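Friendly challenge for the regulars: who can give me the structure tokens for this chain first? No prize, just bragging rights.
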Amino acid sequence: MIQDLNPDLLTEKRGLREVRVLENLKNVIQETNEQILPKCRETMQDHLSQALQRLQAASHLVHKLQQKEQEQRKLNNQYLLISEKQRITQWEDFMKEQHNKQAAVDEEHKKATERLKEQYAEMEKDLAKFSSF
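First reply, four minutes later:
Bragging rights claimed.
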């Protein structure tokens, strides 16, 4: 039966089908260009704008946090330096005090040794007096 049909008629029907497919494709492309793409572009711009605002806010917060951390680090470093200077001063004062105490103990020991020498010398004199009797 298909053989009975005119080949020109088949070509014409095929051509009409292709034209309808192309027209449908053209309509889809036109609808996409006129309606879908603008909606997509608008939605994308809205979301990108919101994302940019959020990123800027987050960046601002991070910057503030970094500044606070840097200030805190600076304060900690200053505190450590002050504490270190105080400890050095305390150590130096302690060492001076120990040196003074050592000098006082050495002086007291020297005096005590001299007193004992004098005392033993007196005792030897006294003993020598008694031994001559």
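The CA atoms of residues 31 and 113 lie 118 Å apart. The radius of gyration is 54 Å. Your move, everyone else.
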